[in-house]
Fold these 2 entries.
Entry 1:
Amino acid sequence: MSDLLERLRERGWRLTSQRRVVAEVLDGEHVHLTADEVHARAAERLPEISRATVYNTLGELVTLGEVIEVSTDGRAKRYDPNAHHPHQHLVCTGCGAIRDVHPLGDPLADLPAEQRFGFAVSGAEVTYRGLCPACAG
Amino acid sequence: MSDLLERLRERGWRLTSQRRVVAEVLDGEHVHLTADEVHARAAERLPEISRATVYNTLGELVTLGEVIEVSTDGRAKRYDPNAHHPHQHLVCTGCGAIRDVHPLGDPLADLPAEQRFGFAVSGAEVTYRGLCPACAG
DNA sequence: TCCTACGATGGACGGAATCCAAGTCAAGAA
DNA sequence: TTCTTGACTTGGATTCCGTCCATCGTAGGA
């Protein structure tokens, strides 16, 4: 966490209280929060923080590669602070719960050159779907 | 195509001109259209078709498994008529262009039991990302 | 041909995210 | 320490995407 703030300062970030609080919220809970949830938790510590600032800060963290944007359904994007540990996501088709998972192998290796159509392929995201134990009842 | 209309009729669909036009638009171009693009193309043939009807029909086609809903960015969902041929997607990080691709192997096989956390995993979607030849310039 | 339940309509509505002009403040300069 | 300035924040308006709903229309069976 202090690592994150350090890295941000090194990249020329102005360390405002708003940015600090957003970064702390993300670091505090390794879950997948929506922008509004981040805003709500941030507002507990800094009541007047605006939604626009939360969106701005999240966007900057994504650009810097410190946070990953996840959109597993058509609804609000979620923000995953676990950006430095490659992983994929397992999503419950019932309740929408998300778990980080670590599949074997590298999905990129499964895409042969003739299936790349000249693209400079740089990454792959895998979303596994299924019913979680709670929803399977 | 006529196959599709046949299948729909067999499932008790009332064959309205609106549904016919939407189905024909999807079948006509094997690209990944947004709902608004489907509406625009449908309106060329049936000017008074409403957006609500296009959304309804697309939703029904998805439920019936005739069309797949794809959301590769946080923007509008896209509709993929190629539902009967399993495939994944390759998305240009520059212009957003989408290609169907066929990777080797089965992503489900790469998720070991201890990484399933009790979920009844039923499927996996893979999104490859990279710059397309045009955007790479 | 007539009936009627299913489907279409379009305008209002809602959630998510972005935009913008005005105000504020972090942090380097003096 | 204070000053200065451009980067940052604010919140309300706006856009985009999609859904809802009351009303109207019509496909297709009787």
Entry 2:
Amino acid sequence: MNFSENLKKNSEFQKVYREGNSYANRYLVMYVRKNHLDKNRLGISVSKKVGNSIVRHRLTRVIREIYRLQEERFLKGLDIVVIARVQSRDKNYREIEKALFHLGKIHKIVDISE
RNA sequence: CAAGUAUAACAGGUAAUCGCGGCUGCAGGCGCCGAAAGGCCGCAGGCGAGGAAAGUCCGGGCUUCACAGGGCAGGAUGCCGGAUAACGUCCGGUGGAGGCGACUCCAAGGCAAGUGCAACAGAAAUAAACCGCUUCAGAGGACACGUUCGGGAGACGGACAUGCCCUUCGGAGUAAGGGUGGAAAGGCAGCUUAAGAGACUACCGCUUUUCUGGUAACAGAAGAGGCAGAUGUAAACCCCAUCCGAAGCAAGACCGAAUCGGGACAAUGUGGCGGCCCGUCACGUCCCAGGUGGGUCGCUGGAACCUGUCGGCGACGACAGGGCUAGAUAGAUGAUUACCCAACGACAUAACCCGGCUUAUCGUUAUGCUUGUAUU
RNA sequence: CGGAGUGUGGCUCAGCUUGGUAGAGCGCUACGUUCGGGACGUAGAGGUCGCAGGUUCAAAUCCUGUCACUCCGA
């Protein structure tokens, strides 16, 4: 990931929740906040209600992979938190990808030129 | 071939591209940061979750604390022998239960130490006479025969005695039979008896003694005893035997910013109060203590794993050889494409490490054995 | 990671210690009362005691396993 790093601290997550805007659809919730840096920071959160550790790890990997492969389509200078909802537990890569870019378009942080 | 039973193994594979975490190496046109040690980036190579990694139900290693020795309390285990570092695990036996069988299952010490509890039903629940059966005495009644009385031969009636039967009251004997109940005073058959009864007898059961076999649990044989010690319950209190110090890697050890605390130095420096000096407060440098944010170690070479030989029925042990096989710290295994297989793959992610147990699980394979059917 | 606790009618809880009848309040239904509603009175319905197995004559209660939820410490 050339332009991005991970969001790690709980306080940073809390900052995004408080100061950012949120949109949601059936599978995901996305919070976005400007961080005034020249790169993005991505945080992924999956609740214990979604499933056991196998399910939770798989979802985080899928979401991170989607972001990694199409990183250049996102605008820069953002803190992004993606929360997986219960409905997403059995969904495959393609469905999660559609849901993520759907939210990106609502936030107007994705390059729509494609 | 079908059904079953026991044990064991596997847990999608191959290739390509992109991506992630450690490790090792680098001669990177002296790449970047740093005084250095080293770190970051890059390149190459190799390694990278499970049979249950799960639940956290037991046992141990390791660490810190406590500790002369012994006991109480509390907890755990519970047929016998063995294996093991240890165990509630495993192996081999004994006894019992289930199955035609292969085989499977059993918290399997002690209610013949004490205490407690046993609803409802039933006469009675750890103890018994409610009904019944037998007998004795009294009362009443029916019948039969006899004697006698009435004017009395007959019929009829009355009185008395005897026999037998019925009803009722009381005493005694009796646990054979009776409905209830999970459980009713050893079971069953006979003898005896007024009726009955381990009162007695045979067989079975229980307890116990001796002998034989076995390390033992126990098994077999012979004898004795009584059956008023004899219901069930110890996953009721409890008794007996054995074992157990407590907490846990977020244990613990080390390095240590900033702020705060104490001291020293410097020297009258800077700033605040003040017109100025003195004074006072803060700032500076160094040292000490504390140990927060953070970092390093603990952290993976092990009662491990693989192969072989030997000992043992077996669990397991001994010896020889072989290679090194995750170590993250918000937490590394994913995505896409193609092919193979009947198939999209089941259950499921290490977090200090081992030995077990339990629970979840799509399926595939191998071997031994049992039962049935068919053929030879 | 470690520790503790709770699952009982629609809701909130008792009963479990010491095994034998499942109970209270609110809610619900019907009737009465009222012009009507509320309140009140009378009667009634409603529970596999989270699930599975075991001990026992008998289990909500005792034992074992399992599932879900809640709280606490760091």
